[in-house]
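Morning. Coffee machine broken again, so started the prediction first thing and wrote up yesterday's gels while waiting. Chain of 336 residues, entered below exactly as on the submission form.
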Amino acid sequence: MLRFMRKAFVVGLIATVWVSGCTEPAPDGEGTQTTDVLGDTRTEDVFEDDVRSEDADSSLPDTHADGGPITPLDASDEDAHIPDAEADAEGDTQTNPQGGSIAIYLAGDLTPKTFQDGLSGQTPKVFEIALSKYDIQTSLDASGRVHCYDLAQPKVANMLQDTLMGSCETASIPSAAYTHGRVKVDWLRLTVEGTLHAGDQVLPGEFTFFRAYSDTTYEGETFDAGQGWVEYSGVIQQRIPMAYAGPVPGDAYTELIDGEYWLTFPFGRTLPVLQDSEQEHWARFHWELFESFRWEERPRAGYVESIWDVNATNNTQSEQVFMNGVSGFYITSSVD
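Came back before lunch.
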């Protein structure tokens, strides 16, 4: 029986990979995109309550005109729904007599939201992303790109919290009005709960997806950009290698250059930087994670509503995933 379960698991896990986002994506705004967690944060076909003017993924018009209030501004605010893992020094713009600085933060927004897609959802129980380089630029086309920092080892952000990823001194940054940030994404790891069905066996457990966005080393193993694995952990545990699709051709926001995956994002407000300023600037990239792993329920014997069910032997009977852990994003900064 165990041999059958392992063989069935391999087949089913490959099927799981397929339904979880390894097909080529549709262009932004066309159909449901399931390929790229990062790329899919900008456009979706899922209606939502849009209460932030910088919610770049929304399919509904903003309820605030640009320039209106954006909350939360600071992950340490009481209503932010984000545990503040860092000292609360990144709130309103401060001054430092030793010289100014620019910092970038990543934060998961766990604020409850209402979906009208008819799908079931869960909030990922583990969501980590690693970044190692950060640039700021004066336009999307990067003609005014300026290097901020380059870390020897990628900094890992727990996206269920708020994490300072790195900073640089404004003395090294030319005075200008900066409109975009650009980060090198090294890898991403996402864990969700689910049930694996193998014959008459019902195996509750966890599915972990790992993707190397850039050429990288993870847990002592070297990966090329686009490589990764999916692992089921429960009564049995097995990890299977997999390959992910690359950036969408022609996408101005994502690009793979010499094994480095770059993600460009607009600031919520133009960030004016004066080279001799003593101000401490910051930009925070918020990802909306609440129930953002979403799938379509299937009325089959043994399947439980609100639980993601995966069939180990027949892909067509697995519950198809339509959103892979991020429902949208928005940017806040010290000038908001």
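The longest helix spans residues 2-19. Going to sketch it on the whiteboard this afternoon.
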